[in-house]
Amino acid sequence: MELLTFISGIIREAFAKKIILSIFIFFSLIILFIVFAATNESVAGMLTFLEASGGNADYTSAVIYFESNITSKIPMFMMIAFYLIIVSSFIPSMLQKGHIDLLLSKPISRTKIVIGHLLAGTAFSFLSSFFLLGIIWLIVSFKTSVWHIPFLYSILWFTLIFLVLYSFVIFIGLLTKNTILNILINLILFFPLSWIFYLLNMVTKKGEQFFSFNAATEFVIKFFYYILPKPWDLADLCENTIKQEALSSVQPIITSVLFIGIMISLSIWYFNRKDY
Amino acid sequence: MSVITIENLKKEYSPKSFSKNKILALDGVSFEVGEGEIFGLLGPNGAGKTTLIKILLGITFPTSGGGKLFDRNLNDVKTKSRLGYLPENHSFPNYFSGEQVLYHFGKLGGMSSEDVKRKADEYLNVVGMNEWRKIKIKKYSKGMMQRIGLAQAMINNPDLIFLDEPTDGVDPIGRKEIRDVLLTLKSQGKTIFLNSHLLSEIEMICDRVAILNKGLLIKEGRVEDITSTDSFAFVTSELNNEVYNSLLNNYKAVIQGKTNFLVPANNLDEVNKIIDFLRSQNILIQSVSKEKITLESKFINLIEHKL
Question: Is the pLDDT assigned to residue B133 strictly greater than 60?
């Protein structure tokens, strides 16, 4: 009961701060762009591109290729960065003097408060991704008559990617109590740090024919690659799912879930010991 | 029955700079608050009053020592459904209206939707904010915020209410209304823990007080005991020179005027001896009363002597 009230309070805050309205406008613009972009001509262009790449392409695979481009790394980065910027104020706002005192005097444990933030973030990310990607899927499907259900799985991938980064937003928010610092640290972690180590890891795996790192450097690369969030690897897996291919690796899922678990555990541990 | 028990409570804050010493906010504070009491916590700025309330509510953790609320440990979350709290400088989300504040914090306090609506109607009337209930609180004055804050502290029908400077920013009529609300709550058996700088108000409504200074508990007891003295005040008919000199020399009286004086006396026998003397001198006695000082004077004396 108290947890639900707490979560509804966060959602109400999102409405009051015009966060939901901003998302609606931003996503509507993206949808408008897709309305104009998803034409038979653009699918035909994809088809030509696929045929030129040497594949046995048909109209359906061109549509799927078009859909996988919508959820590729650059649009994903823009969407997640947008999410992060707008949700980074939630924790610092809760920690404001006079507000946190009242909250902690209520019969809701500090652990539940952290979990409540995570659940609110999950609901927020899932529903907004559902709105954006669901409508995009409907537009593309109506225009092309290809009803490719696996595209909708990208909603779950986006939610997971958001959660990985949001768990870090919660932790940094509790540590710094500062929205701007929270946004900066998270954007640096998300891009370029995780991006650099994603690329470096790719190089260590695939670039042996060109050059190789020494053992110590490779260890450092692997270390940071495994401990940092992996939004880019998850985006690759999202593409695998849309294209109905086998997942290239389940390791990013396991390490991402572990990352969420560690960040939330650290947040709970820290929040349960902090004086306000 | 003790509602609050504090034993040897100590709180040290670590400074942000390494060169500075730790700040001792509370230094071995112990006391108890009984059921149905209005208990006042006094002290100059930085004495540790708010820290003490925050420790009792589990907002801040003690360095050592501890306490109990309703015989349960301080960090027991379940106990909090029996508590109400009005923090100093509270900050409600400014996108709420007055009634939304009560709904939100009432439900966070574990109340059902029906109960919270019923109680909100009741307490908005009690604090005189019914007309403003639909208005966003960012439009409220300081005094109105305090009234809504007080209603919020009472919404879950708590058995123990912590109020940190409840009349801050409230006009004299509003202060009187708040005092009346507190006395009504007391008559309902609620325990009230009050932290205020307004000593005259504390004196008017508190049963017992504790005075903190620099983290130390320097005085604790009933308000009457703290404000009473060892002197009796006499008001009489006009004193003649003989009586005047006798009172000065034999009874160590402090003459305050031609018809009134103070006499130090430890018991009623001594007071009656003075009455007998006055009557033997044909002096008419208008009144005899135990001399009191205001809580404010006592507070200032205590703090200045300890500083």
Answer: yes
User: Which residue in B61, B87, B152 is closest to A101 by CB distance?
Assistant: B87
pLDDT digits (tens, 9 = 90+) for B226-253: 888 888 999 999 998 889 899 999 888 9
Neighbour-count burial of B95, counting CB atoms closer than 10 A to its CB (0-12 exposed, 13-18 middle, 19+ buried): middle
Flag if B61 and A106 touch (Cβ within 8 Å): no
Model ipTM?
A: 0.81
CA–CA gap between residue A79 and residue A204 (Å, rounded): 29
Q: Does B16 touch chain A (CB under 8 A)?
A: no
B307 falls in which pLDDT band (50, 70, 90)?
very low
Q: B2-214 and B226-296: same fold?
A: no
Q: Enumerate the β-bridge partners of residue B26.
A: B11
Tell me the shortest Cα–Cα distance from A4 to chain B, in angstroms.
9
Q: What is the number of CB-based contacts under 8 A between chain A and chain B?
A: 83
CA-based nearest distance A29→chain B, Å: 27
Question: How far apart are alpha carbons A48 and A62 in whole angstroms?
Answer: 9
The region, left, alpha or beta by phi > 0 then psi within -120 to 50, assigned to residue B112 is beta
Per-window interface: B 92-121 vs A, CB < 8 A: 92-93, 95, 104-105, 107-110, 112
Angle (CA) A97-A99-A105 rounded to 5° is 110
What is the Cα–Cα distance from B33 to B69, expressed in whole angstroms? 10
Q: Across A49-58, A183-192, B11-20, which has the greatest mean pLDDT?
A: A183-192
Chain A interface disruption, residue of B59, B72, B95, B150, most A CBs within 10 A: B59
Per the CB < 8 Å rule, is B77 touching A107? yes
Find the closest chain B residue to A271 by CA distance. Answer: B59
Rounded average pLDDT over A128-134: 91
From 3.40.50.300, 3.20.20.80, 3.20.20.70, 3.30.479.30, which CATH number describes the B2-214 domain? 3.40.50.300
Q: Which of B85, B107, B110 sits opposite A105 (nearest CB)?
A: B85
| Pairwise CB contact (< 8 Å): B110 & A12 | no
Average pLDDT over residues B180-191: 91
CB contact under 8 A, A105 and B89: no
Report the greatest alpha carbon distance in chain B: 77
Residues of chain B contacting residue A113, judged by C-beta atoms under 8 Å apart = none
The CATH code of the domain at B226-296 is 3.30.70
Residues B226 and B34: their CA atoms lie apart, in Å, by: 18
Does A101 lie at the interface with B, CB-CB under 8 angstroms?
yes
Segments making up each domain of chain B, as ranges: 2-214, 226-296
Residue matched to tokens 């541990």 = A269
How far is Cα of residue B283 from the mean position of the Cα atoms in its chain? 42
User: What is the residue-averaged pLDDT of chain B?
Assistant: 90
Torsion angle defined by CA atoms of residues B88, B69, B180 and B125, in that order, rounded to the nearest 10 degrees: 80
